[in-house]
Amino acid sequence: MSEMDKHAPKGSLGVLVGGGPAPGLNGVISAVTIEGRRRGLNVYGIYDGYKWLVKGDEKAFKEHAQELRIRDVSRIHFDGGSIIRSSRTNPVKVENGVENSVRMLVKLNIRYMVTIGGDDTAYGASEIAKAAKGKIKFAHVPKTIDNDLPLPNNLPTFGFQTARHLGTLLVKNLMEDARMTQRWHVVVAMGRHTGHLALGIGKSAGATVVIIPEEFKKEGPISLRHVCDIFEAAILKRRAMGNSHGVLVIAEGIVERLSEEELKKIPGVVLQYDIYDHLMIAEIEFGRLIKNEIERRFKERGESMKLVEINIGYVLRCMDPIPFDQEYTRDLGYSAVNYLLSDKPEHQQNALIVVDNGRMCPVPFDQMIDPKTKKTEVRFVDTKSESYQVARSYMVRLEKRDLEDRDLLKKMADEAKMTEKTFIDRYGYLVQ
User: Fold this and answer.
1) Which of 146, 148, 229, 331 is the catalytic position?
2) What is the CATH architecture of 5-158+321-376?
């Protein structure tokens, strides 16, 4: 007889992870397992997200649904990654995927499910929950290092603080490398729709300049020319101020705002989409596009300038969580199980689990997901906030007052090998 079988009259609890890694996943898995076991449930870790659920192969599913015991998880909250792995399988996109998922969970007597992931994983959970018609209750724990889910009171998503922490250390090291070698680095940070991570890293490290999607107009595409103009003007200004090095940070999500027509014209760029119809940003090598364009511009001026580009996205996702996320994920995992087993009338729905100031604040699925987009609302960086203004004030970017400073304007124009009027005509739109 397994560890808690004799105390499990309510069925079993399953836990799975969907989407990309985030620091703290093991913390949630650990807390869910420990609390589930203490409350008399058998706990199953379902490997590889929805991958084996949707196939409808009972034998294969049971091979990938491993019983978890307290001794298996008691110290994993210190570790990055996920002991039950993950996948991007979309139940809705697989024929009979939702129905197969319900059938497999029922076969294993799973009456409670904790899903850990972003909006795509949450939508998959909501569809399976609907199809289960009350047989399985779901609690979804939101995770993303992008920090773009609209949690109450501007709470961070778990994993963000750890990713920002490591990202800041990496950019700090790159800043010293840039200073010592008198070079420029282009750093691409994750953030499919928003710039929270790029801005958090750049602001903390004191990077030369940070570009995020939110600083552009919401309507219409962003041009690669505009992005490179911001970087180039920053380089010219910093050189005019006596420094020939720096670090430029940009959020990868800007790629999704570039027009497909512009991207298709760039040699070597092939647009690919994943199972959730997301543009596969990592395949585009955004940092290299910027590097090549900036180098080309300086070459036209008769100057050989070499930039170094680096994408730090994947490096951040499986770091061991810092204490903030170690504690935070324990709260989330415990609260998920507590919600699932709650008898309160207001806790009978399937819900996203939020912990605010130490208190559980569940958000029902029907309030969480937009039925049209099938996604949660996106939380953007507030560019009108004082926090953002602080970040901007410490960047080296072309400002209106720079064009009114005759001495600085002349130096910048000289660096660009232009007249002052030509410089204003070329870059003046950046300060509008």
Assistant:
1) 146
2) 3-Layer(aba) Sandwich (3.40)
